[in-house]
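Task: complex structure prediction.
Instruction: return structure tokens for all chains below.
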Amino acid sequence: MPKVAVIGVGQSAFVRGYPGSIRELAFDAYAEAMADAKAQNSDIGATVICSSPEYDKQRSPAGVIAEYCGLNPQPTFYVETLCSSSSTGLKLAYSLVASGLHESVMVLGFQKMSEISSAESQERMGRGADIQWESPFGTMMPAYYAMHAKAYLNQFGASEEDLALIRVKAATYGQINEKAVYRKPVELQQCLDADPVSKPLKVMDCCANADGSSCVIVASEKRAKEMGIKKPVWILGIGAASMPINMSCREKFHGLAVAEEAARQAYKMAGLGPKDINVAEVHDCFTIAEMMAYENLGFADPGQGPALIRAKETYKEGSIPVNVDGGLLSKGHPIGATGGSQVRTVVLQLRDEAGAMQVKDPQFGLVHNIGGVGLYGNVTIFGR
Amino acid sequence: MAKPEIDARFKKFGTVSFTATTKVNDFIDYLEKGQVAGTKCAKCGQVFFPPRADCFRCPGEAVEWFVVEGTGKLATFSELMYAPIGFGEDLPYAIAVLDYGDFKVFGRIGQVPFEDLTIGMDMVARANELPGGNLNYVFEKA
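Output:
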């Protein structure tokens, strides 16, 4: 397979109530990634636009955003896998470059969630699950993940405090990420005392909705050289999987099989294992999601996730730093932009350009991005 | 000429139904009779819950209805203190999965006090009429 590099990354600030339209929001990330790659629009062969529908009124947003960024007449594609849309977009971009169809492709993810109320948002998100058989019972994302949390705590004798420790870690790094929506410190007791949303998950176990955009530009080795890219970051492994949408068709609830399968593929393709990873971004839409990710990615054995966080092994100085940009819990989770934001963090880490968040001399980084409740799984491994 | 009649029985499913027509509309008739039903492939015997009109292993083959009977084990659950739009009046409520061995059922907890719920407990699925006349099913202690 020909080598594919990430040559530019960008991200808007993740905020509540972005004071502009979706095209303007998407432009923020586009502009930063183009400056990062020192690219011209003529360098971009195609665009992949990623978001989750029904948060704004625009149908087929790819056309609007390609026009606003001046990326006509290049072909543009719209990709959607709920919260992992831009990781799926990256897989498409990778394929377009590796196949030789295009020398360079831009993945541009966005979401403007503030156009609707929080309760409306919960209803939209709930409809990212099975609308025929589950939504009529009144489901929403926190409740689905709470069912996983209940099963996890029961299976392994873990505690709500173990989950809260993940939020405390996220807030440690959210404070130093100027693009995060939540930048305050969080104390353990504050997490434990927070109001329940769907038991055992409390307000502090849940990430916030946010408006944001992200942009990742990938290119062939040849194009990266032609453009004089000094620190290309290579995509070494790219795994993707799906599992049944209805909870009644799942084998287990104390982990996500979709992440295990995507990780298996990505490790195999990269020829690497969990112990080789020096920095990771995992999909912590809820604290329990990060706990399960530790185990589903092989950073900890089943049931050993709590020991990993208690020993602070997933802090910046630990053996496997995870979400040292604050994660979704601190950054916020603008659905279509999330995966690209995770990729940006890992790329900056591998270039030694992550500033206060920098992990010491990482060689390999991993992104774990989940769509829906373990419906779509994406694991991507990068190397310098 | 009369318009063809649309079979929209499934509008009656749940507090808010997001689907009106489905080939497994008979599910509503079973609920009206006080039964929760799944389907089974007539050829390979694969059991489906929620019910499906098609077996993905044997395309074109018929599926048959079966009534969910006996007890299932509570696989997991969660008590909601916050609800999506349209469900606020139902709060607080719990959603859950029962494991019957051959299949699992996703639904809501019925009249069981939350503090009595424990993973692994035996429960039964029961058809339930909602205040507005819609139907769903709930899980009760066995």
